[in-house]
């Protein structure tokens, strides 16, 4: 049980970081929206990247990509010495895939609350 919890925490942490990266507007796109670097404000919060809202579908794509990546790496770890790491990666992927398959997605939850 504890090993599974560790896998869940690890997978969720990495996936939240991936989602955070996906929300960041690419630098060139942010530059097109903003002004020249010389005219940029200086001070607290200046290093904050521009953010964009991800659709539920895009969030699911990022989560699925994180799971797929773990399964691919695990499949490549065939040496007995890497069995523990492969098992951990598969456990992390399973956690992520369960999240995607869980009936509590935001869209379904919203439809249940609004007749």
Polypeptide structure, described:
With 115 residues, the chain is mainly alpha-helical. It is 67% helix and 0% strand. The longest helix has 22 residues, at 2-23. The termini are far apart.
Summarize this entry quickly.
By secondary structure, this protein is mainly α. It has helices spanning 2-23, 27-33, 56-76, 83-101, 106-113.
What distance separates the N and C termini? Answer: 38 Å
Average of pLDDT: 75
Q: Tell the overall outline.
A: elongated
Question: What is the radius of gyration?
Answer: 19 Å
How many strands in all?
0
Quickly give the structural class. mainly alpha
- Beta content comes to under 5%
Provide a count of the helices: 5
Low-confidence stretches: 106-115
SSE pattern = HHHHH
Oligomer: single chain
What is the helix fraction of residues, given as a range?
55-70%
Sheet bearing the most strands, described? Answer: none
